[in-house]
Amino acid sequence: MNKEAQVQKMTDMMAKFVGYTGKKLPDDVIAKLQELREKETEALPKVIYDTMFRNQELAVKLDRPSCQDTGVLQFWVKCGTGFPLINELEGLLKDAVVKATFETPLRHNSVETFDEYNTGKNVGKGTPTVWWDIVPNWDGCEIYTYMAGGGCTLPGNATVLMPGEGYEGVTKFVLDRMTSYGLNACPPLLVGVGVATSVETAALLSKKALMRPIGSHNENERAAKMEKLLEDGINAIGIGPQGMGGKYTVMGVHIENTARHPSAIGVAVNVGCWSHRRGHIIFDKDLNYTITSHSGCVL
Amino acid sequence: MVEYRDGKKILVTPISADDLKDVHIGDILYLSGSLTTCRDVAHRRVVEEGREIPVDVRNNAILHAGPIIRPLENDKFEMVSVGPTTSMRMEKFEYEFVKTTGVRVIVGKGGMKENTANACKDFGCIHCVIPAGNAVVAAVCVEEIERAEWRDLGMPETLWNCRVKEFGPLIVSIDAEGNNYFEEKKIEYNRKKDEQVEIISKQVGFIK
Ligand code: SF4
Questions:
Q1: B204 in a domain, yes or no?
Q2: How many angstroms away from the CA of A281 is the closest CA of chain B?
């Protein structure tokens, strides 16, 4: 296959995959929602979960996006230096989003800042978002896709704490956000927390944390303990599905971390809503693909 | 009118103040009849510019939403996808809006505050939420789009007057007595949050 045909092929596959993720939630999210659904006993959370599951069934059956807000498209790319399409990747992801916008269809969610007009194609200056991680000595490419809806983007926040405020300060920062903004972000939420050295390092980690599969833990023992403490703590607040009260409020809390300056603790929080439209696909150099997020998805 | 079917309580338009007497915050309802999408600019036109709303919503329902619509032939439309938008943006206008239009049921996302609660109490109206993110469930409850007014506002802001069947579930967030579900819950959430911050803080003293 020549370069042009390869680019076309990968563009088509990514457009299809993006569209698919707008209609069907990833396996881990469905399993977790099912688990939480079974644990609720009151009428209100039960009727909300029943609606969610009926909605997801109908979305697949009628082939429509499950939530009307299909978000801004964000990609986290881990690309091998030897991947044949490394040079074309960013451009083809943009083309894939335009294609998916018309084929799926996706809502037009890209407004140029300052000029303040909607491009009508879901792409603009810097959108879709593409974050790069370069992997030396590899010829494959791994891509996480994410639809960042407005409602679940809103609670995002980052700050730099003084060391004296400690992890107690991190706790308060995260929990405050749950009761002020989290309840309107369509819980049960997946909560991503970044603990690092500055706002931007923490913020990026808090989003990457949302790409981790539900049920995974930080490899640092204390960080993993804090994930559990925050998860149990937020659940105990009782916000429940749609913020209307229930036993469980989160699908999980994921912390990602780096080392920090001795005088600063960068902390950020990001949330994914119950409709957590995350996809994960890995390509080899011949563009054979493996999808880990959605079993049964064929492009 | 109020109907009961398969264990569901269904409000059928036209709805009277009397129909809302036994409705309380936290109740689960459904709606059949006339439902019109109505959001930011439409509220502004009615309240600030004093324009007459071209769809009669008196004793009927409005939905804070901006839907995705597919145009069909002969000026007909199909509801592809519809989900509620944050009701709080309309809070500022809602007292006057309810007063002038006589709307009985407001559907949206998240809670509203005193302005709306006062309107509910003074004029016999309720605010409900429909669980968000369920665009397909909501769209299939729309039997027909009967009218489209103020089209100059573009697709999201147009008043789409729909005939709906058992639209819901709707959870009552403000009842006609002015009780406010979210405001009551928020006090409880904040209290529990403070407790949890304290409990967790005792276990994360990693900086020694
Ligand atoms: S928060 Fe998520 S589920 Fe709720 S409306 Fe936004 S994108 Fe949809």
A1: no
A2: 24
pLDDT tens figures, B109-167: 999 999 999 999 999 999 999 999 999 999 999 999 999 999 998 888 899 999 999 99
Task: Check if A183 has its Cβ closer than 6 Å to any atom of ligand 1.
Answer: no
- A151 chain-B contacts, CB cut-off 8 A: 86, 109, 132
Would you mind telling me the total number of residues written for chain B in this entry? 208
Find the CATH number of the domain harbouring B64: 3.20.130.10
Q: Which atom of ligand 1 is least distant from the CA of A185?
A: 1
What is the residue range of B96's domain? Answer: 2-181
Domains and CATH numbers, chain A: 3-23+66-149+277-291 (3.30.1330), 152-272 (3.30.1330)
Place of tokens 């926040």: A157
For residue B200, being part of any structural domain is answered with no
Into how many domains does chain B fold?
Answer: 1
pLDDT tens digits for range A95-131: 999 999 999 888 888 889 999 888 989 999 999 999 9
Q: What is the pTM of this model?
A: 0.94
For B208, residues 6+ apart whose C-beta sits below 8 A from its C-beta are none
Active site residue B127: no
